Amino acid sequence: MFDKMTLQVLANHARAAAENMAHTLHRTAHSAFVKETQDFTVMLMDKGGDTFAVPMDLGATWYPGLTYGRAIAMVDDYRPGDVAFTNDPYSGHVATHAPDTHLWKPVFADGEIVAWTGGHIHNTDMGGAVPASLSRSLTEIHQEGIRFPPMKLVNEGVFDEQILRIMQTNVRKPALNIGDIKALVGALNTGERKVHQMIARFGKQGFVQGVAALKDQAEAQARDILRAIPDGDYQFADYADEDSDQANPCRLNLTLKIRGDSAVLDFTGSDPQLGSSLNVPSGGDPRHTMLLVGVYYVLYTLNPRILLNTGLTRPFTCIAPEGTVLNPVAPAAVGMRSLTCARLRSVIFGAFSQAIPDRMPAAPAGNNCIINVMTRDERTQKTVIAAVNPVVGGGGGMPWRDGTNGSGADAAYLKNTPIEITETEVPVEFVRYGLAQDSGGAGRWRGGLATEMAFRVFAPDSRITARNRDRSVFRPWGILGGKAAGLAEMIVNPGTPEERRTGSADTAILGPGDVLMIRSAGGGGRGNPFEREVWRVEQDVARGYVSADAARRDYGVVVGDADATAALRAQATEHQGHFHFGPERDGFEARWTHAAYETLTEILAALPIHWRFFAKTEIFRRMEGNGPEAVHRAFDAVCARFPDLPRPALAQAAE
Question: Annotated Gene Ontology MF terms (predicted)?
Answer without folding.
Answer: 5-oxoprolinase (ATP-hydrolyzing) activity
